[in-house]
Amino acid sequence: MARKNQTLGEFIIENQSEFQYSSGELSRLINSIRLAAKMVNHEVNKAGLVDITGSAGEINTQGEDQQKLDVLANDTFIRTLTNREIVCGIASEENDDFITIEGHKENHSNKYVVLMDPLDGSSNIDVNVSVGTIFSIYRRVTPVGTPVQLEDFLQPGNLQVAAGYIVYGTSTMLVYTTGHGVNGFTLNPALGTYYLSHPNMKFSEDGNIYSVNEGNYNHFPQGVKDYIKYCQQDEDDRPYTSRYIGSLVSDIHRNMIKGGIYMYPQSAKSPNGKLRLLYECNPMAFIAEQAGGTASDGHTRIMI
Ligand code: AHM
Ligand code: MG
């Protein structure tokens, strides 16, 4: 039973049994993510004070200019998860290939793989706008004790066992689901402890926000253009309000709390849309559905 203001540590222990495979491993994994998120938060908060903003001078596997903080967040999450020998594999938006963790233990029997976007929206860092981390957790499908394979990572979204995000905003929050609703924890930076501030998060039924990069409007499919015009019409409770940060985690976090829709449709620049299925769409879809919302690619449910 979630109690407001209980710590994330207490919450994890008390709710361990809700998790269908309940071996304690997933709890330890969420604990490691909580630790890495604290370290990344510490670095993000120093942006502007020390030389960590701007480009790292590399292009990542997605063809994008890596920011210094992308690299730092990526290293922090990978190091924390690897050192604790808590997972058997990691795939990151910033790495060309997945990482196999063999472990030092005699019977390295970790069952989970983590997929992550370590610092989403990082182009916003230089201008002091919220960024986030997104993670998605699956049980491996290949035999325990053997090196992970690509198929352990390329699983359909509906097989996720947990997913979450951290938003580094005016305060830092860790929000996650294991398929039993969504809970949000706010970091008290003085104590380094997360407290349950948003139990059982649900999309508001009567939201009036739409979030989309309207700079791409001319290239959107006709159906999307019609929908945007619908949002803008003077009728009933419309026009709706347009809010777009350009930081997926923050945009969805706000829309979940206030009620609204987030869209990244295809455009000339991004014929398949911009968001990545494994690192962004699947985890955010799991959270959205667990919060009473829906997540679609415009035709079908994302979590298939
Ligand atoms: P990133 O993973 O390289 O940071 O890109 C993903 C981000 C999302 O956070 C955001 O919703 C979207 O890209 C914004 O794209 P655009 O600037 O084209 O509107
Ligand atoms: Mg991203």
Question: What do these coordinates show?
Answer:
The protein is of the alpha+beta class. The chain has two domains: 8-198, 2-Layer Sandwich (Fructose-1,6-Bisphosphatase, Chain A, domain 1); 209-273, D-Maltodextrin-Binding Protein, domain 2, CATH 3.40.190.80. It has seven helices and 13 strands. A hairpin with a 6-residue loop joins strand 3 and strand 4. The longest helix is centred in the N-terminal third of the chain and has 20 residues, at 25-44. The radius of gyration is 19 Å and the shape is globular.
Low-confidence stretches: none
Give the CATH H-level superfamily of the largest domain: Fructose-1,6-Bisphosphatase, subunit A, domain 1
Structural class: alpha+beta
Overall pLDDT level: 91
How many β-strand runs?
13
User: Tally the helices: what do you get?
Assistant: 7
Radius of gyration: 19 Å
Give helix and strand order, one letter per element, not per position: HHEEHEEEEHEEEEEHEHEH
How many strands, which pairing sense, and closed or not: the largest β-sheet? 8 strands, mixed
Oligomeric state of this protein: single chain
Q: What is the terminal separation in angstroms?
A: 29 Å
How much of the polypeptide forms β-strand, as a percent range? 15-25%
Tell me the name of the CATH class of the largest domain: Alpha Beta
